[in-house]
Structures are given as C-alpha cells and as structure tokens.
Amino acid sequence: MWPPICSSQKCKPWRFKAADFHDAYQGVARQVFLILFFRKLKTMKHLLLAAVFGWGALSAHAVEMGISAADTLAKVQQADSKVLFVDVRDPVEVMFVGFTDAVHVNVPYLMVDRTGWDDKRGVYKLYQNPDFAAQIKAALDKRGLTADAEIITMCRSGSERGEPSATYLRANGFPNARFVVNGFQGAALKDGPQAGFRIQNGWQNSGLPWSMKMNPAKMYRVDTR
Q1: Is 125 found in the same domain as 49?
Q2: What is the pLDDT of residue 185?
C-alpha cells in the first residue's frame, strides 16, 4: 500500500494491483515496439528506393550483352562509331580459320599452352591471357575511347570465349562490354549427316566480309613488342 493521496474529497489509499503493473508494462512495450518498427520500416524503404534507383541507373547505362554479327558490323561501319571490336581468338586459330578486317584488334582471351595437355577434353590446355584487361585498355586508348565505350568481343562460337570475355570485362571496369552471338564460325549442327559442322550461323555464315588474309597491324603479335 502506498501513502494516501488526498484531494478535496475524502482521502483514500492509492493501491496498485499486479495487473496494473502488467498493463502498464504492456503499453510501454507496445509503444517502444511500434517506434522501432516504423524506424526500421523507414530505413528499409530508403534502402529499397536506393536499390531500385541504383539498378535503374545501371540498367540504363549497361547495354545488352549479346549482339548479332550483322548488328556488330553495322555499328562498326557507322561514321561516328565509338565501338571497339575485338577478335578474342588465339591468333593461330585466326590464321587457319579466317579473319575479318572489320575488327579493330586481335586480343586473345584464352591462350593455348602447348606444353600442357588436357586428357579429359583431348586438347592442349588453355589459360587466360593475364594482360587481357590491360591490352583492351590500350586498344581503347589508341582509338581515343574510354572504359565506358562499347566493346564487342568475338570468338569462334560466342560461348567459350566471347561471352566469358565480355563478362570478365564488365567485372573489371568495362561496363558496356558485349559479345557476338554465335561468334565467327557459328554453332555446330547437332543432327544430320553434317553434324558437327559450323555452317548455320555466325559471322562466316551471315554473308559478312571475311577472308583467309590477316591484317598484320591488327593481329596479336609478340615479335613487334
């Protein structure tokens, strides 16, 4: 029992029951919970808005990854072209398969290790060109372009080096890197008597310019370094 509280009326003792303390505690706890909840909600709202606007800005800036061979040639031939078109095949492969002078430079993404053999695949081992990003940067500088320029890479089929090289470039400061879908030779036929032949799509099968003659000024060379 607490001391009596008096007013103009008759003094009565002030009594608190356990239920009163429980109700008061529940009320305060509820208010604290609501305050923290709405603060958290407000923070989450800001984070969500930041994520949405950030993704929107990124989406607006980065171009689509894949591009057709025909569209690539059209971009390269524009009078005010700001594109760097890169053949990322091994130069020996280019020598035996074919070359298009529409490319600006040959910078291999994967290189052949002639001292190692891949028993599982039955081919020489491949390793990533350790200077690939730096060599792409140098090619951009030579054309007066920045890292934000559109870079289009092309390999044999687009899948093993074209797309991976574009993905690698995007992850290393070149946000608008792309690759030629189906590459230079195109995808191999899966069925029929010509299964395995690359005669259905890609640069070579799209009526676009190419030949067996290479441009020495554009090829990846170690003898001139």
Answers
A1: no
A2: 97
